[in-house]
Every structure is written in C-alpha cells, then in structure tokens.
Amino acid sequence: MILFMAVKSRPDPARSIVDALLDVVAEHGLERATVREVAATAGVAIGTVQHYFPTKDAMVVGAFTEVVARIRRRVDAVPLSDDVESDLRAVLGELLPVDARRQTEARIQLAFAARAAVSPTLAALQREVLDDVRASLALAFERRSGRRDPRRGHDAAAAALALVDGLAMHAVSAGGQTDVDALRRPLDLMLAALLT
Amino acid sequence: MILFMAVKSRPDPARSIVDALLDVVAEHGLERATVREVAATAGVAIGTVQHYFPTKDAMVVGAFTEVVARIRRRVDAVPLSDDVESDLRAVLGELLPVDARRQTEARIQLAFAARAAVSPTLAALQREVLDDVRASLALAFERRSGRRDPRRGHDAAAAALALVDGLAMHAVSAGGQTDVDALRRPLDLMLAALLT
Amino acid sequence: MILFMAVKSRPDPARSIVDALLDVVAEHGLERATVREVAATAGVAIGTVQHYFPTKDAMVVGAFTEVVARIRRRVDAVPLSDDVESDLRAVLGELLPVDARRQTEARIQLAFAARAAVSPTLAALQREVLDDVRASLALAFERRSGRRDPRRGHDAAAAALALVDGLAMHAVSAGGQTDVDALRRPLDLMLAALLT
Amino acid sequence: MILFMAVKSRPDPARSIVDALLDVVAEHGLERATVREVAATAGVAIGTVQHYFPTKDAMVVGAFTEVVARIRRRVDAVPLSDDVESDLRAVLGELLPVDARRQTEARIQLAFAARAAVSPTLAALQREVLDDVRASLALAFERRSGRRDPRRGHDAAAAALALVDGLAMHAVSAGGQTDVDALRRPLDLMLAALLT
DNA sequence: CATGAATGAGCATTCATTCAT
DNA sequence: TATGAATGAATGCTCATTCAT
User: Fold this and answer.
1) Phi/psi of residue D177, nearest 5 degrees
2) How far apart are CA C113 and CA D129, in angstroms?
3) Closest residue in C to D106 (Cα–Cα)
4) What is the pTM of this model?
5) Which CATH number applies to A57-194?
6) Distance A22 CA to F7 C1' (A)
7) pLDDT tens digits for B162-193?
8) What is the domain partition of chain C in residue ranges?
9) Nucleotides of chain E within 7 Å of a protein C-beta?
C-alpha cells in the first residue's frame, strides 16, 4: 500500500506529459498541441518531453493510446446487471457528453478521430478500439434479442455506437451547448426502437 | 453566349482557391492546409490567395461555408417521391461515405467538425447546417408517422443524422476501408426500427 | 484670386498624399509609412498613390522635399526687425518644438534625418537646406558683430543651428515631454554668450 | 588564465548578435536590421538570434542598451585633469564624429534616436542617458564658473550636449563628408563664449 | 486619371529536432 | 535522467511593384 502510494506520488513524467497534451487538445485542439505548449502545461522542460517522446508523432501516438485505454476503461467500468437493456443504456450513455468531464473526453476523441483520418498509425488504434467496443455491444444486443443472429447484433452495435459518437460529435462541434435531454432522447428513442 | 464563355474562361480565383483548400484537407487534413500549399494546389501565387482571403482564418471560414453549402445542396438534390420512407433512406444514404466522392466529403466534414470544436465561428456554421438538415429530416419523420408529434420527429431526425455522421466518422477515422454494406446495414436497421 | 482658390480647393492628390505620409511619419515613424498606410490615411486608393509616386522612394523623396520647403518657409516667415539679436532669437526659437505643431515638425525632421544617413538622395536635400539656413543665420551673426569675419559668423550659425536641432532631437527622442523653458533657456544662454 | 581563454574562445552569442545588429544599423539603418540580416552578419543561425532575443523588439532594445552603455563608457573614459575647460572640450569632442569610429557611433545613435521618437521603451533609455551625461557636464560647468548657480550649469550642459549631438546629426544626415574643423570650430566657439 | 487584381520577395515568428552535457 | 542551446525549415502575413483596364 505504501509502495503503491509512493509510486503514485512520484509524478511519472511520461504520464503527466500525456495528461498535459490531452488538456491542451481538449482546450485548443491538436494543432495547438506543440511540444512547447505541452511542456509548459506539464511543467517540465521542453527537452524532458523529448526525452520521453523522441518525436512529436510518438507523443501524439502515446496520447492517443491513453485515450483509447480510457474509452475501454469507461466502458468496462459500467456495472452490469441482469437487465441487458439498462446495461446498454448505461454503457452508451457513458459515451455521451452529458457533463463537463465527458464533454472534455468527447472533444479529445473528436480531435484524434480527425487526425486518424490522415494518420495510418492512429487509424489503426481507432479501428481497434471501435471493433472492441462494437464487439461488446454486439454481445449485449445478441443476448437481449434471444435468438442467435450475430449479424443483426453486430449491426445494432454499429448503429448504436455510431449514434452516440455522432451525437457527441454534433454537440462538440456545434459549440458544446447541447443540453442533456437533446442527447439522451435520440439515444433512448433508438434503443427503444431497436430492442422491441 | 460570348459573355458566358468569358465568364467560364476566367475561372474565379476565389472558387478555385476554396476547391484547392478542400482538396488539401481531404488528402492531408486541415493542418496541412497552409496558405502556401493551397496556393500551389490552386496554381496561383501565394499573394493571390491573400488577396481574396486576407487572413488564413478567412480562408478556412470561406472553405467551410462552401462545405456547408455543399451539404445543403446534396440533401436538396435528392429527388423526393410519395414514399417518405424511401426518401429518408435516400437522403441519409447520400451522407454515407459509400463511394470515393462521398468519402472525400466525409473526410472534409470530419476535419472541419474537429476544428469547429475550437473555433466559435466554425461552430456557428456547423450549428446552422445541423439544425437545417435536422429540421428537414424531422419534417419527413413527422409526415411519415402520421400523428402530430413534433418532438418525436425531431428526436428521430437527430438520431438519424447522428447515426449517419457517426458511421461516416468511424469509417473515415478507421482508415476508410469500411465496406458499403457495413455502412448501409446499420442505417437500414435503425430506419426500419424507427419507422414501425 | 478666384482661380487661385479654385486651384487650392481642388484637392491635389499629390499634395494630400504627401500630407498623409507626413502625418504617418509624425505619428509612427518612417518605417510605418507604407504605401498602404499612406493611401488609407490620404483616403485614396493604393493605386492612386503609385500613380503619382511610381515607387516608394519617389514618394519619400517627394515628402522630404516638402519637409525641406516647410523649413525654408518657416525660417522665411519670421518677420525681420532692426534688432538683429531678437531676429536671431525668433528664427532659432521657431525651430524648437515648443508647441504641438512644432513638435510634429521636429519628429518628422528627425525621422528624415535618420533616413538621410543611409540615403544619398535624402542626404543631398538635407545638405542643401542646412547650408541654406546656416547661410541666413551666418549673415545675421555677421551683421550683428559688425566686423567682417565671415568665418566666425558661419561658425556661430553652425553652432546655433546645431544647438536648436540638437535640443529638438533630444526632446523628441526622449519622449517629447520636455517643457518649453528647458528648450528656451539653453538657447538664450548660448545666444547671449555668443552675442557679447 | 585558462578560464579567461575559455571565456574568450566561446564568444558569447548575445554579444556578437548585438554587435552584428549595430554593424547593420551603422551601414544601412535600423530598417535593414532584420533578424535574417543580423543573423547572417553575426554568422549564427536565424534560430539562434531568437533563442537569445525572443522578439525583434527585445533584440533592438538589447542593442540600444549596449549603445547607451557605450556612450557612458566613452564619456567616463575621458581622463580628467585640473583644467575643467579642457576636460569639457575633451568630453564634448569625444562625441563629435571626427573619425570613422566616432562617425559610426553617431550614425547608430541617430538611428536609435529616431526610433525612440516612436518607441516609449527606447525613449526611456534615451532619457536616462541624456540626463546622465547632462548631469556630468552640468557639474563641470558649475565647478568652472566658480559660483553656485546650478541652473546655469545645467542650462550650459544642455546647450553643450545639444550642440555636439546636433553637429553630429547634421554631419551624419548630410552625407558624413563634414570636415573635422567644421565640427570643432562651432564647439570651440560656443565653449569659449560660455566659459568667459 | 485612377483603380485594384495579381505577384513573389521578404518579414518576424513558431516549430520539431539534434546534440552536448 | 533531464536539460537547454542551437538549428533551419515552415508558417501567416506585409510589402512594393507590375499590369490591364
């Protein structure tokens, strides 16, 4: 326990650099995530950043890896019940920018998604996490529907994930003033339609 | 006739600059859309670009204005029939990156959506076009459902638009190798669920 | 008379361009006297400026010519009396930046003097006007001293002119807050010493 | 000894950048003192200049600070004797552009004086050094005159300093071909008049 | 006579990166 | 392990100038 705290209290520079980068991205976008700005935000020297991430690309990849890990953690953190439907609602709701923290995550994800469109390395990571989350959702849809129709389960999962990410993108790219209901109602409507 | 040819032969630099910018964005993202690169792509001098767009921001705004106009044109161009359901399918299908041209548009839109997350000016344009398209879709959903339930129609529209944009974002940010069926089936599934 | 007024009322673009340039120089220095800024200040099109002054150098030379003419006019405008000493005091006092208008002139002259240090064309104009004014002053000093000592008269003139221009330069380059007495007293002191 | 050689062999980039800037100013004026030109003249990379002087303004201020220090050094370096009059002649003569080195200094000072007219930061430095030198001269005049008349001493100092700077400005701005006697005689004349 | 479109060189500045310590 | 000096390519932008009308 003491050891764990000690480890935690030593402020792992790589981690704080990644966090700083994500802060910058959330606030100003990936184009402002320069080595200088990240170093300043992290409170370390510019040379330190490049000690841990020799190139800027490595730094961006490192940060996106953390983003992807966060998504997985968020999805896995949702406590599952016997009610598949409410579980689905919970998991998908987790991905909507319904509060400041989730909005920040959405902004970060949108920034990296756009970058992934022109970066094969990031695209690969994006593909992985999308496949992963989709597979989880597909399993839930399949279990709920009772019958063994993997394709329908997978299509429903793809639809559901696209829906929440689309809603998040619309909210974030339109200024972020979307109210919570305007995000929840379309999701509920589609889930209800899909699950009957 | 002579006038028309004259107009056609002088190809409106502002237009070709915007087109060049969008080409660059589609290929390399907004971060590579420098004044120099755009000028080179458009085949004009760097000073010419800045004669038409005094600042880079003005150039980006001008380009996004064109993007927004294109979206409206694409939605409006879909021929409407008596069958509301097939109309919806047609309009929403138009927005999916099912061919090279539409994929290019999707890449461009994703790039600008990410930029809009940190640019109030672009965010305002994005909000406008989203509201506009959503309103059109809401009308269709409402008409189809028969009953007067504007809220449900609007929620369905929000869900449908988020779904197609989410699918497009996933396809584009995952490397663009998504096959056409993987895009169409989730849309069809949701539309079928929503319209029964 | 009517003709003269008509000529004067037609707002001779060359004249107003020169005036605009001098306004800009007085306010922001010669480095801000760009063709753009001058055109904007004069309220004419950028092309109009270059219609009258084909190159920027020509424009600057034109403006300095006007500056030089103004100096001559200011010196010549001082009404002469029988009292040579008070005439000298009046002429030299005219060149001190004792009010806003004269301070503006001093700022302009300093800017052009600095430019003349690296421009043979401007240096020639500067030499001319300096020689001219010095000759006038020398005549006065000579007349005052009674004896025929041209060299002493010329040296006194050179000293007096250097004194007032030095005082002006010091006032203008130190922020322009120099009070009137701090300008007048050194001049009076030196004149008194020189004339006894 | 070894330390001294080490220091000497690593030639302090900031210093050589300032020297290069002053060389450029002396030759072509402040308007040609671009970061590029200064870097090239100093023989360092353009990025190196901006490592030491983050902005061009900082570089100009740094250079003017050196100019001001040089003036103080030149004034202080004049060896003082028992003869106040000859001391005054020596100090003031030091400021006249009577040889190539002093002419270079005069050109530099004129350039910065003109810039100070539109730059509060430079104006403050200029005010400081003028007050400083004037105070030294005032002391000498006062001591010489014997009587306690601080105001007269200060006025005489202001007159003397304005005279030499005015002579320098005239020489430099008229092309720099002024002969040494034409500079010395007005100074001697005024000093003689002032000190009797 | 007066305009403004078009140009490209040059500007200050920001950037990621290399390297010596 | 961590730093910062040094670099030069690239950026957005300003500029004087040419030219067609």
Assistant:
1) -95, 5
2) 21
3) C117
4) 0.90
5) 1.10.357.10
6) 28
7) 999 999 999 999 998 889 999 999 999 999 99
8) 1-54, 57-194
9) 1-20
